[in-house]
């Protein structure tokens, strides 16, 4: 029977060694907010790292307080008896560098100025996150992960891990992801960033000192992003053309249920996420392209990997379409790597990787049960 991991407590870890980012900028000291579930076995071979997507964070499962309304963002996947079974695995979640949920990011205090980093916080790439995650593994004494798992931007991190630290990853699970963004996806990200940057309250990224938040821009960015995370069929089934009052009002206020839903999502997001972090996360998405340093050949990039792979896509995901996952699969096969592929029928669009679709959960459970047998 599947249960919750229960009440969990995150921990902030301090890293005193400086890190040189891909941009050449050095961060002398940083903190990572980390949450763990389950127990590390004697030889530390049962660890799973979960990499979060654009708006994700360290709080993956369970609750911080009994009265919390919602559990962690992947609570349906992680826990005792769940596909990522905490009776078998030691599961690690973290808020990436540049985030806004406890790790060092733009809203953190810069020790050199005693003011928030703001616009001075450097662009961070996926390879930089992997470097900080490797240092986290070192801190915990984990030489090799049983699996590294991520959806969307998290899947990109799993891919990068398999290339940069091939000997430290036994299995990489890449879900609803892509080997690089299409021009259309880069365009969506830029429109979202422009909504934030052109908000009068943005102040060039240094809005903290002004005591304001570019809420309007962040709200619009999230509304645009949310549309791309859903499918046309899913939106149609849930909202259709339903009117809130049942009749036209001949104005520009909220009339359709889908408008109400998007505004609610935008308003909620604008109170809990940092605008500068949103810019950083979308830029990391834009820049990700592991084939770039291998003559444009993804197969050559993946030839560095030693891990076995599970790649999962969803039929209604048009943001990271199944064709993009099949590009990854082809590159892995061309590189003579071991890969399993599942294309799940779903109406949930890109958000399907967060949902509890039975076929998807069954695939994850079956694959991870085999991973667990390797370390039993």
From TrEMBL:
<dbReference type="InterPro" id="IPR008220">
    <property type="entry name" value="HAT_MetX-like"/>
</dbReference>
<keyword id="KW-0012">Acyltransferase</keyword>
<comment type="subunit">
    <text>Homodimer.</text>
</comment>
<dbReference type="GO" id="GO:0004414">
    <property type="term" value="F:homoserine O-acetyltransferase activity"/>
</dbReference>
<feature type="active site" description="Nucleophile">
    <location>
        <position position="152"/>
    </location>
</feature>
<comment type="function">
    <text>Transfers a succinyl group from succinyl-CoA to L-homoserine, forming succinyl-L-homoserine.</text>
</comment>
<feature type="binding site">
    <location>
        <position position="222"/>
    </location>
    <ligand>
        <name>substrate</name>
    </ligand>
</feature>
<protein>
    <recommendedName>
        <fullName>Homoserine O-succinyltransferase</fullName>
        <ecNumber>2.3.1.46</ecNumber>
    </recommendedName>
</protein>
<dbReference type="GO" id="GO:0005737">
    <property type="term" value="C:cytoplasm"/>
</dbReference>
<dbReference type="GO" id="GO:0008899">
    <property type="term" value="F:homoserine O-succinyltransferase activity"/>
</dbReference>
<keyword id="KW-0486">Methionine biosynthesis</keyword>
<dbReference type="InterPro" id="IPR029058">
    <property type="entry name" value="AB_hydrolase_fold"/>
</dbReference>
<dbReference type="GO" id="GO:0009092">
    <property type="term" value="P:homoserine metabolic process"/>
</dbReference>
<feature type="active site">
    <location>
        <position position="350"/>
    </location>
</feature>
<keyword id="KW-0808">Transferase</keyword>
<comment type="similarity">
    <text>Belongs to the AB hydrolase superfamily. MetX family.</text>
</comment>
<dbReference type="GO" id="GO:0009086">
    <property type="term" value="P:methionine biosynthetic process"/>
</dbReference>
<feature type="domain" description="AB hydrolase-1">
    <location>
        <begin position="46"/>
        <end position="354"/>
    </location>
</feature>
<keyword id="KW-0963">Cytoplasm</keyword>
<feature type="binding site">
    <location>
        <position position="351"/>
    </location>
    <ligand>
        <name>substrate</name>
    </ligand>
</feature>
<feature type="site" description="Important for acyl-CoA specificity">
    <location>
        <position position="319"/>
    </location>
</feature>
<comment type="pathway">
    <text>Amino-acid biosynthesis; L-methionine biosynthesis via de novo pathway; O-succinyl-L-homoserine from L-homoserine: step 1/1.</text>
</comment>
<dbReference type="InterPro" id="IPR000073">
    <property type="entry name" value="AB_hydrolase_1"/>
</dbReference>
<dbReference type="Pfam" id="PF00561">
    <property type="entry name" value="Abhydrolase_1"/>
</dbReference>
<feature type="active site">
    <location>
        <position position="317"/>
    </location>
</feature>
<keyword id="KW-0028">Amino-acid biosynthesis</keyword>
